Amino acid sequence: MMLTKIQIGKIRNRLNEFSNPLFLFDNDADGLCSFLLLQRYLGRGKGVPIKSFPELSIDYFRRVRELDCDSIVILDKPNVSQEFFEAAREINIPVIWIDHHQTETKIPDYIEYYNPVYNKKSLSTPTTVLCYQVSNLKDDLWLMIIGAISDRFMPKEYSDFLKTYPELGIKTKDPFDVF
User: Fold this and answer.
1) What pTM was estimated for this model as a whole?
2) Would you list the domain boundaries of the chain?
3) Does domain 5-178 have CATH number 3.40.250.10?
4) pLDDT in tens, 26-36
């Protein structure tokens, strides 16, 4: 299961309202490709990889002020500190969080949280695939494939990717083989 059409529409609408979003993304290929997909879709925003583990810590909130951002988009991070959320609330900055992991984080009602794990049945669809649903830019198919395969997930669009970029893949149904 992925995001619903309603969720995709809400994310697109909110992203289009932001003039200078800060993308905070997990420090792996799924996180990086998720950021690139959404930044290319919008044509604006700044990205910062999250190196804190296991959660997005309050230390990253300083980047909001340094980069003069009007919104925060968290990508592919399973946990976020409550202090980070409180800092966002204090300055009334919108936060969208798109992820595919189970979370232990208590999510405040002012955070826009999107995760297909909570949509009825679920696979652990990588965040890159979710962001590709939002961006829907066919020229960026290769970014989605890189992010998905790096998370050992075979997206249904892999056959389209092979048609367009036959030299970059192999015929298989196993993401481990492609990786």
Assistant:
1) 0.94
2) 5-178
3) no
4) 999 999 999 99
